[in-house]
Amino acid sequence: MSEERLDQALEALRNEPVPTGEMAAAQERVLRKLMGQVPSLCMEFQAELPAYLRGELAENRRALMDDHLGRCAECRRIYAEAKGERKVVVLPAVAVRKPRPVWQRWALAASIGLVALYTGRDRIDGLLAPSGPRATLERASGQVYGLTDTAMGAGATLADGQIVRTGAGSHAVLRLADGSAVEMNERSQLFVHAAWSGATVQLDRGDVIVQAAKQRRGHLKVRTRDSEASVKGTVFAVSTGMNGSVVAVVEGAVEVDQPNFNKTLKPGEIAGSTSALSGVTAQEAVAWSAEKEKYFALLAEFSKLEKQIAALPTPAMRTQAKLVAYLPSNVMAFGAAPNISGTLEEAERLAEQRAEQNATFAEWWKSDKGQKVREMLGKVEAVMPLLGDEIGFVLAQGPAGEHDRVAFVIAEVNTGQQAAVRKALAPMVEGVNFGVNDKVVVITDNQAHLLWAMGQLGQGATSAFAAEVAQHYQRGVGWMLGLNAQAFQMSSTEKAGALTGGVPLKTVFFELRSKDGSQENEATLNFAGARAGIASWLAPAGASGASEYITSDALMAFSGSTKEPSQMFTEITNLMGTMDDKFKTHLDEAQAKLGIDIGKDLASALGTDFAVAIENASLPIPGWIAAAEVYKPGTLDGTIAKLVDAHNAELPAEYQSRKLVMGQQTIEGRLWMTIKAAGAPMTLYWTYDRGYVVMSTDLGVAQRALKTRDGGFALTRSAKFVQYMPASAGVHPSGFLWLNMKGALEGLTAVVSNDALKSIAQDRDPILVVVSGETERIRVASRTRLTSLILDGMLAGTAADASSMKLNRKIQKNAASN
């Protein structure tokens, strides 16, 4: 019988009608056979079902009934019938199997083909990879081998899947076919597999640092036995060993896939594949690199070059807002810079001179990155002499609505130089669009934006933002960037956040000007009314007594004046209450547990003037000092005592040995309050002096602060501090930040044996940033060059990382020996 005829016969049997009586009788017979004789216990419970339904059973009997119904299917059936529920569930009819159409057979074949294609995609991906070597051994120090004992030297090439390994004390740098560099640590082994979607570095063991080139397609991947790092162009490190694998990011972003972990890491972040690697830091992951010494030396050369360029003559400040006349409507930002064509030529000459004097800088200057810098400078120098004394940058809301942004560069064209400008700009950058009329040149990213910008010139020249930009020219402009904050907020300026107390930020200006041979940077935040909310916490300019406790040798200091702390606490409480309706409840619970009222006991005891400083770079805890104005010393001491008691009360029984002990000592005739943890070597000292509390964990540092206030050499009266005080600071700024870069770097480099870094430390100037609060604005100013601020940040971070690594190694070595 054919399959089709069998299906027809089965369907006929299924559709044969059955009398209702016979069906019910058959169901009853089956049920009796399944259930058998009804047990006496069931009969007892079944007799009580009516009372159970009416809710008349006693509580203990009802509980027994619930338990029985949960176990007995037959009693549940009878109970369901008594309630009127259905006892027969109609099952859906079984679909008749029909022959598959021809198209389904082809679909099945296609599906099988797609599955085969998917499972073999990796092989196909590899077959489509470009031909040629997968990597070249660019540099090698020590012993570098292939799978055999044959040594490999610089210039050797690697085929797909060919293993390369480094011996003890050896390093190597591979250059992949896409331009990426892979630095190998000692005792490392890897191979490279190329594919159409990007190359994969398979790290079998050891450590690598990858400087990934920008990928034209796909991603560059580094795989270990339990991790995969995927990038399109960045710098990161991968290590794999006995305890698992670690991925650390130096710059850019890296997508990491590990067991129970998938995340995109940012610079400084690290991911370990096992819990045993949780203590590894990003700095330790790259500490082995042979390039770190070169990096220090290159920073030293950049530092010297930056100072030489800064000493070059700067263009005179401009007092006429010429480019404001060309602003379009809906301007969001306007920037202006002097035409520095002559300075660029001199900067390139100085760079060439440094390359002749220093081999490290020469290597960078002649590298691909250095070549690109030189090419860019050459193109800019070709067009700059043809333009006016100012180059402008404009960001405006475009014609397509709220999310359309048009950015363009604008400059006046010197008389009769229109044709020369067109010729100079034509080969500058691929994809750049520019337009030149009788007066200006406009450069933007696409033709549509160019046409809009050229047609909009001058439409926003009479706006309120344009008028404010013009005001800044009255006292002279060097470099300037103005942001129209209300344009960024669009039509929602009335919905200013609670952070500004309902008063929106109107404009923000950043300026750099040169005067009398010195530079001054300034940032101004302008509000659309009197400052409110958190923006009002900075007090107006006033004299500071707390800063007089800071010595002239301080490495870092921060001093400021605020509004009353009790007012600030109230505003914080209200702000947090609007963000979390349970905040005040949690605050009340915390205060009850601590036994204090933060507003009345702590905030009301403090004044509005404070200062914090690091006086020396001792490790592991620097010597610090803090001074703050105090209205109620007794209330402050009582509050601290309550906090100590609350801390001790919360300690678990096994940590009772760590209780805090509050006491007092009289030293050289002065009463000092103290807090010390039992068995800990460190003690917190504080005393009261002329309306201020002075505290430190180093008694010597605190005593020196008191002597400084008594007539010693305070920081604010030192020649260096006065020299770097901005002209716009006035007599009493609201606060300042001081960073003695020379002293800070010398302190950090005391644990780092690096001559280049120590040379940089000897050559750095201090940083002083001053902030002043006015009714409707906050002004921040500094005489430190902007380029120096950026470089100093790099140097401080590098030195701190280096010293931290050395300190960690020392601690680990001591721990191992003990």
From TrEMBL:
Any one GO MF annotation of this record: sigma factor antagonist activity
Record-linked InterPro entries: FecR, Ferrdict_sens_TM, Znf_put
A UniProt-annotated Pfam family: zf-HC2
Domain Putative zinc-finger residues, every copy: 42-76
Every FecR protein domain range: 164-255
Family matches, as PANTHER family: PERIPLASMIC SIGNAL SENSOR AND SIGMA FACTOR ACTIVATOR FECR-RELATED, PROTEIN FECR
Protein name: FecR domain-containing protein
Source species taxonomy: Bacteria, Pseudomonadati, Acidobacteriota, Terriglobia, Bryobacterales
